[in-house]
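For this section, I looked closely at the sequence of one protein beside the tokens encoding its backbone, which the following lines show:
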Amino acid sequence: MFKKIPHTYVIIFMIIVLAAVLTWLIPGGQYEREIVISEGVEREIIVSDSFQYTDNDPQTWQIFSAFFDGFVNAANIIAFILMIGGAFWIMNESKAIDAGIYSFLNFSKKTEKYRMVRAIGSDNIIIVLIMLMFSLFGAVFGMSEETIAFIIIFVPLAIKMGYDSITGVAMCFVGAGLGFAGAILNPFTIGIAQGLSQIPLFSGIEYRLFCWVVINIIGISYVLWYAAKIRRNPKGSIVYDDDAYWRAKNENTETSISEKSGVAGWVVYGFILAVLISASVLYPVTTLTVGNSSVTFSVLPIIAALFAFSGIFSLLKNIQYFILTILGFTILFLIIGVMGYGWYVKEIATLFLFMGLASGAAMNYHANKITTLFITGAADILSAALVVGLAAGIIVILEDGNIIDTLLYSISNSMSEMGRIGSVGMMYIFQTILNTVIPSGSGKAALTMPMMSQFSDLIGVSRQATVMAFQFGDGFTNMIIPTSGVLIGVLGVAKIPYEKWVKWITPLMIILLITGFLLLIPTVTMDLSGF
């Protein structure tokens, strides 16, 4: 018996061993699959009534090779984490983020002179606004992997505000997770699921918007309650000892923010402006897509003009404000890239790498120093990258053991004898359980929705209700399952042990899972628009 909770690596390896044991106990099975076009993208879907039992492939020594295979399969997330870590380490050397946090907190304290702000609490307002912003990102364009990059900003902010790293992670990661689960226009989940279910894209938005509000009220209230408790007694945090790393980094937060801009800063400003002008010429108009709506206007020329003025203003103030300006425009371009040009982790990682290099150049660091800082940052975050590869090994074992389709078939069959509420509840449970072995929302939609939508026709449940069951089942558990590369990456960057995160989020997860089921009941008992 363990005298203390095992290390995150040990827990994940134990799950890999359990998955390998299941490959000995569960028979193999396979569905036939076909290619269809959904949302203009080819998707591989299951052919209904095509399941056949096959030989399973019991896994033995593969529990050790799963780490290698998982590393290969999760290479994009791993590379993303390493590039983000290196880029932000360069920026952190400038103390620009520390200066920005210090200035932001000073500003928030000044707002407490207003009676309403003082009554609510400026910190509470900050937490709510940040979580709502990320929740909207999650609900509209499926922000998930991108949150890893923001951990390095919000964890130090939370520590400086008197909270802990869990509060910092909750601001962005949980915020985005709440939005992802209560998706309003997420093309990667709702769009694909509705397209494959052959119902109008983003129909039923009225009820989903109501669900999004309910989910956010619950999630944000939980975070505010926890934050208030930690604010009263910081040492009561389960990650207080782990946060020693962040407190040490914050010791010099009140650093000088008056370092004047040198020639290097102006050269970087000119280079970035030239790049933006060139991009504006090449792409004079951009179509930003939000769900099934889109708007086309001159985004890049407007951004170039904004940078031209804000860059000069910040450079005249000091170099650290200029670096914060670079960070701000990096985030703007992240949003534009995702919504306008379909960017994913490769493009986003490249964007942040450029941000780091530009920050180092603006500080007049020589090439060797920038390289050393990047390597140091990547090394500091390496443990997060390694654990992502290890967690991906769980999926490798189940896939190589040829039992995922068997699990899919067995659980779907168990729903055939239930009533409408029971059936939609079982669909929800099915999607929730399946999310632990197929954490990809789009991949799970492609695998399950063709079968689930047709099954719903047989039992008198609307296809829209089936999509909602998929949406909730896919969304909530992303914030707790160890097979989620994003969650493991976020915790690795924040230096929060997985077992401590599970202890913190389990009460919220139970509440959200119950709420999800209650929100599904009206989809089969009431006459809702789009259902």
Remarks:
- DSSP finds 24 helices and six strands in the chain.
